[in-house]
Amino acid sequence: MNIFGIGLPEMALIMVVALLIFGPKKLPEIGRSLGKTIRSFQDASKEFEAEFKREAQKIEESVKMKAELEASQEEKAEFANKSRDSFATEATSTNSTEKT
Predict the structure, then answer these.
(1) Residues 6+ apart with CB under 8 A from 14
(2) What is the pLDDT of residues 25-71, one digit of tens each?
(3) What is the maximum alpha-carbon separation in the chain?
(4) Which of 71, 94, 74, 93 lies closest to 82 in space, CA to CA?
(5) Chain-centre distance of CA 24, in angstroms?
(6) How far apart are CA 53 and CA 95, in angstroms?
(7) Separation CA 54–CA 48 (nearest Å)
(8) What's the pLDDT at 34?
(9) CB atoms within 10 A of CB 61
(10) Interval 67-90: pLDDT, tens
(11) 1 and 8 in contact (C-beta within 8 Å)?
(12) What is the 3-state secondary structure (H, E, C) of the chain?
């Protein structure tokens, strides 16, 4: 058993010293408050991780949407160029037909 780099013998020594310093009546209360503190840190850590994942997903979605918009704009530009070229070709052929 290794918690925070502390092995079982070190943990037992810490418990004995805490028992001597705080006494048997105060020790359960201290343990309870320490447990609540650790639990609140775990909850905060999980909430931070969840928020981080949500923000990363939002960024990923916005990047994907931007890429799709850019691709759509490129398609529109290509279509406009083809239409303009087609119109220019028709106008040129119409002008040459009218001259003859």
Answers:
(1) 6
(2) 888 888 888 889 989 999 999 999 999 999 999 999 999 999 998 98
(3) 115
(4) 74
(5) 46
(6) 63
(7) 10
(8) 84
(9) 10
(10) 998 988 888 888 887 777 776 676
(11) yes
(12) CCECCECHHHHHHHHHHHHHHHHHHHHHHHHHHHHHHHHHHHHHHHHHHHHHHHHHHHHHHHHHHHHHHHHHHHHHHHHHHHHHHHHHHHHHHHHHHHHC
Amino acid at 23: G
- Amino acid at the residue 56: A
CB 21 within 8 A of CB 29: no
Cβ(18)–Cβ(27) below 8 Å: yes
Contact yes or no for 24/16 (Cβ under 8 A): no
Residue indicated by tokens 């905060």 = 44
